[in-house]
Design goal:
2 copies of one chain form a homodimer. By secondary structure, the first copy, chain A, is α+β, with helices and mostly antiparallel strands. The first copy, chain A, contains 2 helices and 3 strands; from the N terminus they run βαβαβ. The longest helix of chain A is centred in the C-terminal third of the chain and has 16 residues.
């Protein structure tokens, strides 16, 4: 069965987010003064084969631990849907 | 009123996604052979003041057009919630 897993990777609280900070600065320079904060988030949409949803989720969990995320600075969550 | 706008930026169909392709290759090298495709997506969570939801959405739409996205290669959608 084919699944689509969405992995959303955020920075932990207290970890610097230079991309977010610089995007905020650029928006202010363009006159968007109503913006208070910008946070950058990275998302991977992963299409994979799995025996069932639980199996697909376990595989993606391992991918996060081995490649996609850095546990020192990242939080992540995984959303799996059959397609 | 304070709003949180989530801007999700994807590549248009047919536009090369080297980050996705290389992530797929790396996952295969690590033995995750069940993965068929990886698409990279960029997300900005923008916290802003607005008169109402419609006003906040219009502001974020303008930010997308002026800074956050490139209409040649990107598709985007905006989700606005009061916080």
């Amino acid at each position: 069965m084919l699944f689509k897993a969405r992995v959303e990777i955020r920075l932990k609280k207290g970890i610097a987010d230079p991309e977010g900070v610089n995007t905020l600065k650029a928006l202010h320079l363009l006159g968007f003064d109503s913006v208070k904060e910008v946070k950058s988030v990275k998302v991977f949409d992963i299409f994979l084969e799995g025996k069932n949803e639980e199996n697909a989720r376990r595989q993606v969990e391992k991918m996060c631990q081995r490649l996609l995320t850095n546990p020192v600075i990242h939080l992540y969550n995984i959303e799996v849907n059959k397609i």
